[in-house]
Amino acid sequence: MTLAELDWRVVGEATDDGPMTMALEEIAAETAADGGPATVRVYTWPDVLSLGYSQDPDTVDWDYCEREGVGVTRRPTGGGAIYHDRYADISYSIVAPAEAVPGDLMACYKLFCEPILDAFEGMGVDASFVDAERDAVHQPACYLRALHPAHDIVGPDGRKIGGNAQYRRNDAVVQHGSLSLSLRPDRHCGCFTAKPDHDAFRERVGAIDEYADCERDTAVATLGETLADWVDADEGGWTDDERSRARERADSKYATDEWVRRTP
To answer: What is the CA 130 to chain-centroid distance, rounded?
Structure first.
């Protein structure tokens, strides 16, 4: 089985709360593993800090997040926390049965990032994988962690503009990622107890609107269309059953303190 042989759907941009956002991906993996459609998806978070799977919750300034209306959830993928601004961040996911993708992690990253790099090109941004590993600026923050050529995407001046992560079940693979449309270093850095330096943030992180004259609506449409074209996906959406199961999964897992504030 190959990606081209699968039945694909593209789910257009939508905004759900943080726990529901992650639960929908988990349900999409179950759908793909059970013989239903594979999914490519573009989505927006409603001002949420998503923690990496193994992240220490003590790195988060919980008072700041509550005061500023920043929700907090935890991803099933590794890496550091990302502040997903409702305007400045655009996210995507690709969900497919495991038997249709390369078993090698690096090969799968390369395959799944093809449409992401094509989307940046369509937005007018000269983006590429970072050419060599770079040391971390602030390890708890995803965009300030050490850069790796396998999954970190940089703009023409070498600043990080997109990150990608995968998690694998026995029967399905989920890759999701964040594209930086604009910079909000005050909000991003404020979510962490250590308060990373704003200037250091700007030196490491770039944004689409710094490299190209590309409005948000255009960037979202370009990403969605590129993902859909990549696998010849039909326009689709979540079924009522999927949303119902996702809401239950969000409430029982992704919204709980046992998940969000757990100490790895």
So the answer is: 18
